[in-house]
User: What shape does this take?
Amino acid sequence: MNIRLGNEVDRSLILTNYPYTVNVLGDSGYLIVAQQKNDIIGFCWAFKRPIPAPIEQCEMFINVIEVFPEELRCQGLATQMLAEIKKIAIKESCYQLRAYCDIRNVPSHCLWVKNGYGISPVKMPDDTIAGSFVTLVL
Assistant: This one.
């Protein structure tokens, strides 16, 4: 198992094999891949941005984290990828790591809590909870 910074070849392979990722992989940011032999079995995509508040700080926003196939989940791969993106965020002098998690994605919520992220539910005007912003202050 190898967790590493991805490259453009990795990005192209992910986009080809998982076309839905075109909506979550941007053109600039950081791609972390989990590789087993020659196969990419997981990835994390994050990008640095200003914190949307009136302070002079930035954050690393994790736009997506995936492990596939499903039988490889819950084996620590996502945690290892989060550790790698955390190292980059610290090196980039980011104040925090942040992501959004859909309310129906209970395994993802468990991943965030396991890794020390705070959970902030997103309440809609009709009082439903759509999901959570998850944050780790560095």
Summary: Helices lie at 8-17, 77-91, 106-114.
